[in-house]
Design a protein that fits this description.
Length: 69
């Protein structure tokens, strides 16, 4: 049994990150990602979702930084 020791840098961010994960999965064609057994997905499929999340978070941060200069 694996233990997930990943913790968000900001307390209380976990629900928002989960929502973002499900939104990204939906955009990639996995609309029922919340109920899917993640072990049945390929590492490529799971990796796409994580990579897409990071890309969107960077885009969001860049847009916010652009407004502060």
């Amino acid at each position: 049994m694996s233990r997930n020791t990943n913790k968000p840098a900001v307390q209380g961010a976990k629900p928002g990150l989960n929502n973002l994960k499900y939104e990204m999965a939906s955009e990639l064609g996995l609309g029922n990602y919340a109920s899917i057994d993640k072990g049945s997905l390929s590492s490529r499929q799971n990796g796409y979702i994580g990579g897409y999340m990071v890309r969107k978070m960077i885009q969001f941060a860049e847009e916010n930084l652009k407004g502060t200069t």
